[in-house]
Amino acid sequence: MSNKISLTRYLVEQQRTHGRIPPELRLLIEVVARACKRISISVNKGALGEVLGSAESENVQGEVQKKLDIIANEVLIEANEWGGHLAAMASEEMDSIYVVPNRFPQGEYLLMFDPLDGSSNIDVNVSIGTIFSVLRKRHDDPKIIDPVSEADFLQPGRQQVAAGYCVYGPQTTLVLTVGDGVAMFTLDREQGSWVLTQDQVTIPEDTKEFAINMSNMRHWDTPVKRYIDECLAGQEGPRGKDFNMRWIASMVADVHRILTRGGVFMYPWDKREPNKPGKLRLMYEANPMGWLVEQAGGAATNGRERILDMVPTQLHQRVSVILGSKNEVDLVTRYHLEAD
Ligand code: AHM
Ligand code: MG
Fold first, then answer.
1. 250 lines ligand 1 (CB under 6 A)
2. Cβ of 61 less than 6 Å from ligand 1
3. How far apart are the CA of 326 and the centre of ligand 1, in A?
4. What family classification does the UniProt entry report for this protein (predicted)?
5. Helix axis angle, 251-261 relative to 287-295, nearest 10°?
6. Does 146 or 165 have the greater pLDDT score?
7. What is the reported pTM?
8. In the chain, where do the E strands start and end?
9. Bridge partners for 117 per DSSP
């Protein structure tokens, strides 16, 4: 008899023992996980599945879409629209929200996703992933059920009820929080099932590793430059230790490394586009990753305030992101506040 814990069993225990998730949310998470399994199969086929390369379209952010961006988006929508748990979905790859069609029952949850994170790595066979976040539709008066609108999505990240990502790397790993710590599940390809391989993941408070795209250095703001200069000064500098650098250019893979062995990840605001608050998206990148990192004992800020406390005003809002080992994030945040 196997004593392996499957995703289903983990979720049932979260529902039964901890009373943390209602059955509808459990089923929703299972459907997302199933969709990730399908995306993983397409990713693995690569050139054999004719899924590499660009499509002839742009998304709402003006980025050229890759074929896999579109495939992953469709897989997530098709898997989730009929279950009866969702009111609507929103994605990096869709201009506006996708309301569950009338032919299906409407649920009370809202699902957001970046279907294929790290798009620039698709064609070069480097880890990529799917990021997701679940909110409950707001009801000011629980007796009134208004039609769902974009405004329902504009909730701060601290109100998420589930968040996670799936990284398609040498292994396919699903990382999840429902507010009871962070659990990691590895896809057993032979069985087709998700197996719990780490529970209560913790990020060390201190680190000697940072992740930032160094080619943007000349565009950074002073506090970011100060922090990285001090890391680069190594043992002889004010930090008194040598730092290592890693940058995969897939947020999922960089965050996965940080959840596994610590580190700090930064995609800060920079002077290239002064009117944009950052590159990454708040609702379906920074919020889910921020909550996962906090649940593992780390921290996530935009340099000045906690990411999960930010009240969004737009679905595709961008944000400056600093997350990972708590003491490093606190230091970078302090440098920003001191410079104000
Ligand atoms: P994407 O969602 O279109 O793939 O863009 C987000 C990605 C992140 O995964 C990653 O951290 C960042 O963009 C890399 O950006 P850059 O190419 O500027 O280093
Ligand atoms: Mg992304």
1. yes
2. no
3. 23
4. Belongs to the FBPase class 1 family.
5. 10
6. 165
7. 0.96
8. 54-58, 64-66, 86-91, 98-99, 109-117, 128-136, 162-168, 172-177, 183-188, 193-198, 209-211, 244-245, 264-267, 280-281, 299-301, 318-319, 321-324
9. 129
90 vs 142, more confident: 90
**Token pair of 239, please?**
């930090």
User: Hey, which of 66, 93, 213 would you mutate to test ligand 1's pocket, going by the most ligand atoms within 8 Å of its Cβ?
Assistant: 213
Asked if residue 211 has pLDDT above 90, the reply is yes
Which atom from ligand 1 is nearest to the alpha carbon of 250?
A: 9
Instruction: Give the pair of three-digit tokens for residue 340.
Output: 């104000």
319: Cα separation from own chain's centroid: 13
Give the integer Cα–Cα distance in Å for 230 and 232.
5
| Model pLDDT, residue 145 | 66
The DSSP annotation for 67-84 comes to HHHHHHHHHHHHHHTTSS
Count of beta carbons in the 10 Å neighbourhood of residue 101: 9
- pLDDT at residue 182 is higher than 90: yes
Q: What is the pLDDT at residue 20?
A: 81
106/103 Cα distance (integer angstroms): 9
